[in-house]
Each structure stands twice: as C-alpha cells, then as structure tokens.
Specification:
four-stranded antiparallel β-sheet, globular, single chain, alpha/beta, 341 residues
Length: 341
C-alpha cells in the first residue's frame, strides 16, 4: 500500500530549531521513600541521545532501566517516588521545570514510549481503530473518514496485513507480534522526536522480533527520531544501537560506542554480562554466570555496588569509583582503570 504524499507531509511536524542533543539527562536521581528506607532506583546517571541515534540501556532486572524512562516522561509513581536531583533536557528545555499540563503536551507528541507488553498498553474493550483515532484526533482536526485513512496508513506502515479490516479488530483477536506493531503505530502516530522502547521484543518470537527491530530502524530512518532502547538482550543491542549505557544498581557503570563495548569492555560487570551470552562458534558445557545477587536498592554499600560479586575486588572498592575515560567516548566506573593503581 503506497503512502499518500499529502498525508505524509501533513503528519511530519516542523523541525525544532535546536542543534544539540534531542535528549540529555544530567545527574538524574529518582528515589522512593518507603518505611524500610530510601530506595535509590536511579542514582545520578547522565547520558544524551541525538537525532536519528539509538542509545541502548542494558542491565539486570531492577537496575533502574525502566524507572529512568518513567522519570523522563514525568510518570514516577507518587507519593513514594520523587525525582530529587538532576536535569532532563529535551530540545534544550528542562522537563523537571514543566508543570503537568506542559508535560501532557510533550508526552506522545514529543516523547513517546512503547511498553514491553502490548496487552497492558491496549484497552481490551475498544477496537484497534478507536485507539489509533484517539491519538490522531489530538493533532488533526479532520473528518472521521480522513482520520480513518490516516489510521489505515499507519497500520500499513508497520506491516499489518489487511489494515482496513484490522481497524475493527479488538486486541485479543490479534497475535502478540501484531499487537506490538499496533502499539508502535500508535506511538509513531504523532511523529515524536524521542521514542523510548522498553523491552518491546520480550514477548515476541525470534522471527517476529527480527521483523520488529527492522521496522523500528525503518521508522527511525524516515522520521529521524532518537530512540532510547531499554533491554537486557545484547543481541538486540548489537543490531539496534549506536551507543550503549550499562546500568547496575541505579547507576551507569560503563558507556561506549556499541562496537567498542563489545570489543573492549572495561567494567567487570559488563565483562560478566557479555560472557554470559552464548557464542555459537564455541562448544561449551555450561555458560558462565554472575555469582550472587544485585544489592537491595534501599541498602546500598558506600563503595562499588558490584564489589560483592566482582572477582577483582580489592580494598579501594570500599569507596565508590570515579568515572575513568578509556578511549574516545568510552567511560567506566572502576578503580582498576585508575592509572595510579
């Protein structure tokens, strides 16, 4: 199905007059105040992502990846959750200084998010068409027939077969892969500048996962959107991302270009994660694993949080490490990288 040029031109927003990073996070801290103590879900992280670029955020469950996304969107669960420090710069403006009405305008049109489970993102009592039209009505004051044409085109863009028919289908009548594509269509319906993908391929089989990742790349090439890709799968990182930030216990412990990270990991945690990925060229009896468990975020050690699981731990690890540069745009927080050692 060919896209109507008139629709395409009307659906692309004017480019903002801003030549810096689309999204820049500086020393962000998101804490939860509970009866058992302060849970430091995000504890002083910094990164940036430019137009047309994909930054991967990887780490174990509970490392703070998803809470980083919720913080960017201003959707930290209240009253326990609170952003206590840092800046979230979107097109040069700090989102932490925006009120709720201003953030509501930014969500969806400026920054949108694709969840890992499409069934929790789609309303089961409304048709797919109704849910796409709800998003389109926010930007286009047009007759319903025109909006339906736009919705059909969006489904066609994400490779949904027979899009005209699927508009009248309910979420439970579609496969997991098709539901995930529908969620992607809704997310991209307002042509956002930043797309946050929170493990969107977790529920998909290998074939559909590959198709979905290729689709995201095509959408990014067409729109120039910056993508923040949250995952625990290094295979997805290798295929999708330009740069990678590795999170552990609420902090970014290493950040580098994707090829540099795979070829030359510096932090012991990153090294352990990569070793746990199967290598099809090697015949092994078992995969290496990381001993121990991640620390409780309401009782973090004073020093390096990875120290209890690290094979290289030494006395200096009782103090949290500085961030050391190990190459061009490659930084890691580990005392073993200190030249004075």
């Amino acid at each position: 199905m060919q896209e109507d040029p008139a629709l395409k031109n009307q659906n692309v927003p004017e480019e903002p007059v801003f030549d810096g990073p689309v999204l820049k996070v500086e020393d962000l801290k998101t804490h939860f105040f509970t009866r058992s103590g302060v849970v430091k879900a995000v504890d002083g992280i910094s990164f940036e992502v430019g137009r047309g670029e994909t930054l991967g955020i990887v780490g174990e469950s509970g490392s703070g990846k998803s809470m980083t996304a919720w913080s960017i969107l201003g959707l930290v669960p209240k009253p326990a959750g609170r952003i206590v420090g840092g800046k979230i710069m979107y097109l040069g403006e700090d989102l932490l200084e925006k009120d709720e009405n201003e953030m509501r305008e930014i969500r969806g049109k400026g920054i949108c998010m694709v969840m890992q489970d499409p069934l929790t993102s789609l309303n089961p009592v409304f048709t797919i068409g109704n849910q796409i039209l709800e998003s389109l009505r926010m930007d286009f004051n047009e007759p319903k027939t025109s909006l339906i044409k736009r919705a059909t085109q969006l489904l066609a863009n994400v490779r949904i077969p027979a899009p005209e028919t699927r508009l009248s289908a309910y979420p439970h009548q579609m496969s997991g892969g098709m539901r995930q594509r529908v969620v992607g269509a809704i997310a991209m319906s307002r042509s956002p500048n930043v797309l946050i993908a929170d493990e969107p391929t977790t529920s998909l089989d290998a074939t559909i996962q590959l198709q979905y990742l290729r689709l995201l790349k095509e959408i990014q090439a067409d729109t120039g959107a910056a993508i923040l890709f949250i995952t625990h799968d290094f295979g997805v990182v290798a295929r999708m991302c330009d740069r990678v930030a590795v999170m552990y216990a609420g902090k970014i412990v290493e950040q580098a270009d994707v090829l540099e990270l795979f070829d030359n990991p510096q932090h012991p945690y990153t090294q352990a994660l990569l070793k746990s990925v199967p290598d099809l060229d090697e015949d092994v009896d078992f995969l290496p694993s990381i001993e121990g468990q991640p620390p409780s975020l309401d009782n973090l050690p004073e020093g390096c949080a990875f120290a209890p699981r690290c094979p290289y731990v030494f006395d200096r690890c009782e103090e949290y490490p500085e961030q050391f540069s190990t190459g061009q745009d490659h930084v890691a927080s580990c005392w073993r990288l200190d030249g004075a050692n």
